[in-house]
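B., you asked whether I could sanity-check this one before it goes into the benchmark set. Here's the sequence:
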Amino acid sequence: MAGEKIALHRYLSPRGAETMRQELKHLTQKERPQVVEVVSWAASNGDRSENADYQYGKRRLREIDRRLRFLTKRLDQAVIVDPAAQTNRERVFFGATVCYADEEDRHTTVTILGVDEAELTRGEVSLQSPIARALMKARVGDEVTLHTPSGPVLVEVISITYPV
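And here's what the prediction gave me:
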């Protein structure tokens, strides 16, 4: 394994991994059994071709099973990285919360997380996003170029923090 390159999409924070485990548990122990019960009841009612409960239930089971396969595979392959354990806190790495300013001195703060856990509405960006790629390994005071659809934008790193 030494020297093996790890795919970035495998990175997850401990919080992200726990969220996925909780969803897996909910789907397995609660939602799927309930849907199976409805499908079994609907199947016992006879003609399945015009039985909306049966058809909807079967479709929902396929969706649940697809999500279960996805979650199981992602968790099996995940590389759990705890941002609190980051020793080089002067540079931007996975889990960093970074404040940067653009050329108009507008400040933006983002936290860099895994592709399966980042939620832009919470100020979180994927490790593979253009802003994360531009900020990676930068230090406070560094200027980096962010490539946007409207062209390159120069941004300056104002602060870098990690959870404690």
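One thing to flag: The first strand starts at residue 11 and ends at 12. Otherwise nothing jumped out at me.
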